[in-house]
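Continuing the batch. This is chain 6 of the set; chains 1 through 5 are on the previous pages. Same settings as before, nothing changed between runs. Recording input and output for traceability.
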Amino acid sequence: MKKAKVLTWELIGAVVISLLGTLLHYVFALLGEWPPAALIAAVNESVWEHLKLAFWPALIYALIEWPFFRKHIRHFWAAKAIGIFAMPVIITSIFYSYTAFTGHHILWVDISSFVLAVFAGQMISCGLLLRQPFTSGIKILTVILWIMMIAAFSLFTFFPPHAPLFYDHRTDHYGIMK
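Output for chain 6:
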């Protein structure tokens, strides 16, 4: 598959994921706090809930891309797993780094880090999609990574660990439970 085509798909994806993630920030409230919406939409202002706003749209976009890539790139899902995994890692790294110095969050930095993480994750995917296929060992590890990410992003809103990542300072709660 040509480099320009893959790059175009990934750049468009970064925009789509950023916009969809922004929309998902409000979906839970707009749907009257409907519990099934909590699976993919933010239910509070914890860092964890904001990570979902990158993960689920990125997975949905990858599902859209798959039919166009599957015949040309055999390691598509492995490359996407690594790129999508990078998004929450970048978001949390930036958030906890700058708040360690400032003592509080800054909205424009949070939004910028989200968009930056999405673009970085898509560019990581792009680079990996354009390289030689992964070894079977790497592919197995990325299957495990997919299972872990889907399980975590599906369960931790409903059953959050009592850790800072999951804590909403605004409501003094964890996850969807009040």
